[in-house]
Amino acid sequence: MSNAALLGFEDRLRREIEEVERQIRELTLEKRALERQLLKARRASTVLSDVSRKNSLTRILVEEKILDALRGAKRSLSNPQLYREAKAIDADLKSSTFRTYLHRMKARGLIVTAGTNGNWRMPSEQVFLKTSHKQVT
User: Fold this and answer.
1) Model pTM?
2) How far is CA 59 from the centre of its chain?
3) Which phi and psi angles does 75 have, rounded to 5°?
4) Domain span at residue 83?
């Protein structure tokens, strides 16, 4: 292959790479827009319509996802397992924010640690009823 042909080939490959990168940027923007629409749809279809702050809505949706995952689990779930579930709700969720959500949920008695640090489960029925009663009164 001659130098001119090789340079032409490299130029074509660079242009194709730039086109793919442009498409990725566009698809990423489109994905984010769809995620925002999904959050709006979830907000409209749930009892969350009175939540005014976006991060409050996200927090509530993430907390519900965590609780659903724990309810459906036969054993305790780890931080990474729950974080994957939470990222389905908010793809941009930071791990530090996620951990804050977990600790707030623990403080409210919605979840409890399971043996070792970083594992979570639903509280026993008796503890949950006691905690729920405190919240209602």
Assistant:
1) 0.56
2) 9
3) -140, 180
4) 53-137
Residue 80's CATH number: 1.10.10.10
The strand pairing partners of 112, in sequence order, are: 121
CB 122 within 8 A of CB 71: yes
DSSP structure string for 66-84: HHHHHHH-SS-EEHHHHHH
Query: Terminus-to-terminus CA distance in the chain, angstroms?
Result: 82
C-alpha 100: how far from its chain's center? 13
Tokens 């939540």 sit at which residue? 51
The verdict on 126 and 90 lying in the same domain is yes
Quote the radius of gyration of the chain (alpha carbons, Å). 23
Arithmetic mean of pLDDT, 72-77: 90
- Is the confidence at residue 54, as pLDDT, over 70? no
